[in-house]
Every structure is written in structure tokens, then in C-alpha cells.
Amino acid sequence: MQYKVEIHAHTSDISKCAHMPPQKVADQYIAAGYSTVVVTNHYVEYNFDTEKTWEESIERYLSPIHEMQAYAGDRLTVLTGAEVRNYDTSNDYLILGADEAYFRKHRYLHRLKLKVLSRLVREYGALLVQAHPFRNGMSVIDPTILDGIEVFNATPGHNSRNRFADRWAKEFGLIRTSGSDFHGLTTPITGGILTTTPVKTPAELACILRSGCYDLICTGIAAEREGMHTMPAKE
After folding, report:
1. Considering the chain, what is the average pLDDT of its residues?
2. How far apart are alpha carbons 164 and 147 in whole angstroms?
3. Residues 31-72: tens digit of each pLDDT
4. Is the pLDDT of residue 13 over 90?
5. Model-wide pTM > 0.85
6. Number of separate domains in the chain
7. Please, how many CA atoms are within 13 Å of residue 225, restricted to the half-sphere of its CB?
8. CA 188, 209, 155: angle at the middle one, nearest 5?
9. Which residue range is the domain that position 195 belongs to?
10. CB neighbour list of residue 58: distance below 8 Å, 6 or more residues apart
11. Where are the beta strands (DSSP E) in 52-211?
12. What does DSSP assign to residue 233?
């Protein structure tokens, strides 16, 4: 049996560019047959520099994940993640494999230099994956700072140059990931990974990604446009 796992999804109450609240996002993934979703809402200035205290900021950031977990129950595993944009560049980085305790402990991640962010993520046993690294406006960075690259981003409205990202990941031996980058009905659920065991915790996700024992889901408009298809993470 294979399990569908989404590792790049947004909800509208935190990510301004998203169009669905947590409950409706859960409904979409349950209907699509996914067993796990990592909520990677945008971890940026407008979500963390507007509240009076850190406690207020992190509670607001985590609240849609809590809502989605409560709503989905045992129908869908909902895990904590983040898409961080720091002050160094306009790049976006997925933090995968970190639990809620990590995000409560490490404050204002978007203010950190990338090397510091990478160190904190790795010390915790989590992974730093650059999202859609070859879209317009992105900057190429030292690959040794990264654990992985999103080699397939399913968003149809962007040219993420997925095939080039895939070659880059292979060249530098980086973990290869796929994500729908779900924001609502305009970004259909056509990415993620396929595993042979269910993913129930952030630590299990990090372990599977490190192992390479999964398939990359590459379907939909973006896959057709670039001639990509669902494939093993290790080739």
C-alpha cells in the first residue's frame, strides 16, 4: 500500500495568497486520498512583526494547524511545517520534520541569516528545503547550506523550472521533494510524495526524506508542461 503525503500547503488565515481556511483544505486532501499534510504557511514579516509579543505571534501562526487537526481527526494526519522567507534574499525555504516545540522555542526565524537558520534546523534533526528555487526572482545559494530542493512544484501559474531544479538537486546530492504548493482551487493537488508506510510525525517525515525511499508525485499541468512524471526519489 502507498500513502500520499503533501509537504507544501497553505491556509488562508495565515498565508495571504491562499484562498481556503483549514477545514476546507482538510476536505480537499481527504477527498484526494492523502493520508498526511504538512501545513507550511508563510513564515514572514507580516505574520510575526505585527503582534505585541512572541507568544501572540506564534499562537496565531499555529492556530490554523490546530484547527485543521481538530477538524480532520483520524481522517488526515496534519503536521507542522513552515515556508520561511528571511531577510537575506527573496528565496523561500521549507522547514520539514520540525514539531511544534521547535517553532515555539526558536523565535523570529525570518530574521535569521540563512546559515544560522540552517544550523538551527539541522541541530533539531529537521530539514531545510529550498522551495521552487529557480522561479523568477529567486537567488542561487550555496547548496551545502541546504538539505534538499523542491524539484517539482505543481503550481500551474508559475514557471518553477522544475526540470532544472531536478538536475541541480542530483548534481549536488540534495534531497528531492515535490509539493502541490496548495493555495486553493487555482492550485490543484498534484504534488507530494508516495510512501510505503504512513507518516504520522515530523520525525518520521524527516527519516523518510533522508532515506530516499519514496516516490515524487509529479502530475497535473506543471508536470505535463515540463514533461515530468511521478518517479522514485532515488534514481
Report:
1. 94
2. 17
3. 999 999 999 999 988 888 777 799 999 999 999 999 999 999
4. no
5. yes
6. 1
7. 14
8. 20
9. 3-232
10. 103, 104, 107
11. 77-80, 82-84, 93-96, 127-130, 148-153, 175-179, 191-195
12. S
